[in-house]
Amino acid sequence: MVGKTGEDCFYGSVTVGERGQVVIPADVRKAVGIEPGDRLLVFRPPMHDHIVMAKIDSVHEVLGFFQKLIDEIHQADS
Q: 72's torsion region: left (phi>0), alpha (psi -120 to 50) or beta?
């Protein structure tokens, strides 16, 4: 994250249970606004051995931001 230190982004560790479940620590849920019932995307970046979880709404925002940039680039090229 730009402008963040490792301490700002690291919240500790969790343990995977027998059924593959993890508990997201309360301080993480509060920091990113995760509420009961929120849906998260879970994905593994290509050629990497880790996972990323993100709120669907946040991913939608990021995609919208990039789509706007792409549209602006296309308009400038026209």
A: alpha
